[in-house]
Amino acid sequence: MEQFWQQVVVPAFDGLRYSTLTSYTWAHPRVLLLLAAVPLLFLLREALAQRRRRKLGVAFVRGQARSHWSSLLRFVPDFVLALSLMMGLLALARPQRTDERVEQSGRGIDIVLAVDVSASMELQDFQPNRLGAAKRMAQAFVRGRRGDRIGVVAFAGDAYSVLPLTTDYELLTEELKGLRLGLIPTDGTAIGTALGVATNRLRNSPGRSRVCILLSDGENTAGSLDPLTAAQLAHAFGLKLYTIGLGKDGTVPYGRDEQGRPRFVETRLDETTMRQIAEAGAGQFFRATDNSALQRVFAQIDQLEKTEVKLTRYRNTHDYYRFYLYWCLGLWLLWLGLKNTFMVSAMED
Q1: One domain for residues 299 and 182
Q2: In angstroms, what is the C-alpha Rg of the chain?
Q3: Which H or E run contains 20?
Q4: How far is CA 279 from the centre of its chain?
Q5: Quick one: which of 30, 112, 223, 345 is 20 to 30 A from 61 by CA?
Q6: pLDDT number for residue 146
Q7: Would 331 be classed as within a structural domain?
Q8: Does the residue 245 lie in any domain?
Q9: How many angstroms separate the CA atoms of 93 and 202, rounded?
Q10: Are the C-beta atoms of residues 184 and 160 closer than 8 Å to each other?
């Protein structure tokens, strides 16, 4: 008996559960709007019947006419007919479920974004500051990629791998958003060390192309690895290096003093070293002095490093209208049977 219940009875009613109905996609969802009209049809029929029905006045003595539960049975045929109509409407709306399979042909590019988080990235020749602009453009770059694995390295006086290579772009965006000044306690600009960490991440990756994009606003002032040596080592492992120099040379705004007046500091980018790194890594050097220039730089890199990945989608759609059609026909036959019982008045039918 328990086996019959599990194999026959439970599946027969499973399609009537709310969770099952909401799991479908409907080929004709507007048909579902007619479900609300089914009760209205019976109310309209009752109203018209009341107007046509002849009434005979009969006097009863109070207390002699009593109601009985069996009087409710006259509503059973109408209830069964309403369910049959509703099941028919569900069948007409064509409930479906679609299975989608995605096949990827070709391999994407493996990219590491090495972002400077040293104290000088707080300078405000970019809006809101250099680091804020770099983060925003890097996030836009990530959202525009398809099929590429991307990792993040942060560096100041030292360098750390924030996120390994991944295709989880939502996680990448969150990690880029979380980069902040002071993330690395040791201040300075260890460009060579950052390139070493990026190379370590990319040297054994299976990507069709391996790219490191370095964003910095200063000269190498920390770390034990020379930037040019690190660039030559990266190139030996097959990495392509793009370097982006952030900021203007000269006097730039840097916060406000105790009286609320803007402060200014002198800054300089070691453009020569940044160019040498890009040349050693068979890439390019870009200079960005404001937000729009930085946006153009990322757009240009995006065009230079295009992914050749084809995604083939296979969709298999299953119809479930038969389940509701069978219910509709079964309830309709039940209604026809009930019409020949005491529940229906032959004079009113």
Answers
A1: yes
A2: 36
A3: helix 18-22
A4: 38
A5: 345
A6: 80
A7: yes
A8: yes
A9: 52
A10: yes
How far is it, in rounded angstroms, from Cα 122 to Cα 286?
20
Residues 81 and 136 placed together within one structural domain of the fold: no
Q: Count CA within 13 A, CB hemisphere, residue 329.
A: 6
- Would you state the pLDDT for residue 56? 54
Q: What angle do CA 199, 240, 218 make, to 5 degrees?
A: 75
The one-letter code for the residue type at 209 is S
DSSP 204: T
Residue with tokens 């660039």: 231
Residue 110 is encoded by which pair of tokens?
A: 């493996």
How many structural domains is the chain composed of? 2
Quick check: helix, strand or coil at residue 13? Answer: helix
Query: Is 142 part of any domain?
Result: yes
Tokens of 119: 């104290």
Closest CA to 231 of 206, 198, 257, 254: 198
Q: What token pair was written down for 335?
A: 């209604």
pLDDT in tens, the chain (349 residues): 555 444 444 556 777 888 888 888 898 999 999 988 888 888 887 777 777 666 555 555 555 556 656 666 777 888 888 899 999 999 999 999 887 776 655 567 899 999 999 988 888 888 889 899 999 999 999 988 887 899 999 999 999 999 999 989 999 999 999 999 989 988 899 999 999 999 999 988 887 789 999 999 878 889 889 999 999 999 999 999 999 999 888 887 877 767 777 788 778 888 899 999 999 999 999 999 888 888 888 888 888 776 665 667 777 888 888 989 999 999 899 988 887 776 665 545 5
Range of the domain at 136: 107-308
Q: Are residues 24 and 150 in the same domain?
A: no
Q: What are phi and psi of 313, to 5 degrees?
A: -105, 130
d(CA 255, CA 146): 38
Q: Tokens 């790194």 sit at which residue?
A: 277
H/E element, 205: none
Which H or E run includes 34? Answer: none
Is the preceding omega at residue 128 within 30 degrees of 0, hence cis? yes
Contact yes or no for 117/131 (Cβ under 8 A):
yes
The tokens describing 67, both together, are 């109601």
280 shares its domain with 330: no
Question: Token pair for residue 36?
Answer: 């609300």
